[in-house]
Specification:
Length: 87
């Protein structure tokens, strides 16, 4: 189970949310609900989930500025390990 959330970048208010699986069906449902709450042409940035591409195209067509952020996985270093140097 996932909580899908859409945040307004200026006000940081939640525009839409959905609790469901991380799949294409829920992506379309989530983006459809978001589209119903937006008045102007939106700028949407998502994570790298491929289901967003289909959902955005199906719901908004060309009436959207859309991008995906692909971030590298976070690497965790236990305390002190990252600062050690080899001599």
């Amino acid at each position: 189970m996932w909580t899908w959330t859409a945040l307004d970048s200026d006000s940081e208010l939640i525009l839409s949310y959905l609790v469901g699986d991380r799949d294409g069906e829920h992506a379309v449902e989530f983006i459809g609900d978001l589209a119903d709450r937006i008045v102007d042409r939106p700028q949407i940035t998502t994570d790298g989930l491929s289901s967003y591409i289909v959902a955005i195209d199906e719901i908004f067509g060309t009436q959207v500025d859309f991008a995906q952020r692909h971030e590298r996985p976070f690497l965790f270093f236990p305390f002190g390990r990252a600062s050690r140097r080899r001599r």
